[in-house]
Amino acid sequence: MFKPDIWSEENRMDTKQVCRKRTVCGVFLILVFAGLVVTATNVRADEFAGGSGTDYDPYQISNVIQLQNMNLNLNADYIIINDINANETSFWNYDSIYGGYYGFEPVGNDSTRFTGTLDGDDHTITSLYIDRIIPVNSSITNISLFGVIGPGGGVSNLSLTNSDITGVWNVGGIVGWNDGGTVSNSNLDGAVTAIVGSVGGLVGYNDHGTVNDSYTTGIVSGASIVGGLVGYNFESTVSNSNADGDVSGTHSEVGGLSGNNWGNLATISNSYATGSVSGGTDGAAGLVGWNYRGTITNSYSTGAVTGNDFVGGLVGVNDQGSVTNSFWDTQTSGQSTSYGGTGKTTDEMKNVRTFTDTNWSAGLSTPWDFVGDPYDDTAPQDIWDISSEVNDGYPHLTHLPWWPPTNEPPVLDSIPEPQLAYVGIPYYYDVNATDPDNDILYYEMEYEQIPLPYINHDTGEIGFTPPPFAEGTWELKISVTDGEFTDYQIVTFIITDLTSEVIVDDTDPEFGILSGDFNSIDLPNAYNGNTHYDDPGDGSESCGWRVDTLVGVGMYNVSVYKFDHDYMHLMATNAPFEIHHRDGIDIVSVDQSTGGTGWVHLGAYNFDNSFPQGIRLTDDADGYIAADAVRLELIGLLP
Questions:
Q1: Using alpha carbons only, how large is the chain's radius of gyration in Å?
Q2: Any idea which of 38-47, 358-367, 529-538 has the lowest mean pLDDT?
Q3: Where are the domains of the chain?
Q4: What is the homologous superfamily of the domain 501-636 according to CATH?
Q5: Residue 439 pLDDT level (bands cut at 50, 70, 90)
Q6: Nearest to 288 by CA among 298, 300, 280
Q7: Helix or strand or coil: residue 75?
Q8: Are 251 and 197 spatial neighbours (Cβ–Cβ below 8 Å)?
Q9: Could you give phi then psi for residue 457, rounded to 5 degrees?
Q10: Which of 333, 293, 294 is closest to 314 using CA atoms?
Q11: pLDDT on residue 39
Q12: Summary mean pLDDT of the chain
């Protein structure tokens, strides 16, 4: 076959082009309150999937663009009609000064509050991204899906998962500042961070607002007033809710459920927290870091608690407040004391008598409302239940999930076979994936230095038109994510130029003597005036024309050049030309003893740049053989 030194390949570029999110190197704690939301009373119908914005005909939201469009009318009513993948928000609103992306623009701000309603209709928003800590062209306070909700406004029946939300002050998973609004039957699983404070997994600042029937399973961190569900609970109500994520604060007022519970009207009831709490200077506890004149009842905590001053199992500081009928686990918390509540062992915390038998349980004045009305319980609502198989045996709220919902990863079904694309011809490749949970999927790609400018993030379709400089073999990494899990494939693209005609002469570098001795001679009728020849033999001597580096991927007519000269009577009648093509090897005999100058057609063959491909001539003939020029003419794409 062909000699390796003649048929060597070119080196390929391997520079990767990967989009990356911003890494913040410094934080400017300048409280610039910039309201960037523009409101409008007239919204075109095509900005939503349907509806008119009234309570009986709310605007319908089917994607993250329409979710952002709520900023166009802050008084309307909305409903989400399917799960939404918000992964693309991590590339929204580029910061041209510091680099990176601000992400989603919170709906409503302190000057124009959201006073409408959003019904999630039990759908999930996945991978919402907000990063607003630098006060340049961006608000850094009231950071969340909803920046500020005003009186009458509300969010219900909504789940957020894999969220990544960062701000400076009043930062929450769903609402930054809940100013008299309501958040109900909603939950979040993700990361919520405030550089300064007033940060909660669901609501950052709950101001005369209501949070009920909700839960969080994410991680919440900040400096002060940090809570797993609510950061600052000012004159507000939290009920029938729980927080299961870890909470950390570097300064004061850090609680597993709420950073503080502040004011005569502040109430927390029928709620619990199980995450670990790490506090700083003062006021760290499993449930509430600082309770000032507020009321806490029928609640408990189990998470490990650490801090410096005013550290409690249930409450860190209780200043003129009321804490009744509430408990903490002294063993799992690592705290034997609390500024409110009654400590219990783990066994006691998992015993329904602790919460329903007033004669047996110290600290219990009124029985909690459990399923089955055990002991002194006679209430009919059945708010609580307890089982060794649920919530690690601790009480759980009957209307909420007591463990994070399971999620199965997506799987790419496409078979990553090499893909052929042609210079100047539009090409499309469909990526197919399935998800056992029917989650909304988001497709992305990473690629070498090759122009692949487009991927449909929703469908996985890749489209591009290769330019001439993209010829070669490239690897493309295609990934699909449901917001939590990711699957990927490496797909090879072979890009070739469909050259219409290629001629290789015996004087060109693609021609070579493979074995034996071929002589070169100048003859006037030869192609370019020169040819190589050899005497007849047994096939052990050969020469060849390499074409796989010159032609594109396609079907080509193959011809050899024949010419008149004075030695025609010595020439072979059966010169054996071997065509090495994609589908194998074909041998065609050419009579070089007859007169006539021009191209002799050998046939049509498929070529695809594979090594080695070309034409070979041996001396296994009945006369002298001439090796002059070969020609390939494109006649079509590969079948």
A1: 37
A2: 38-47
A3: 39-224, 411-496, 501-636
A4: Galactose-binding domain-like (2.60.120.260)
A5: confident
A6: 300
A7: coil
A8: yes
A9: -65, -20
A10: 333
A11: 34
A12: 87
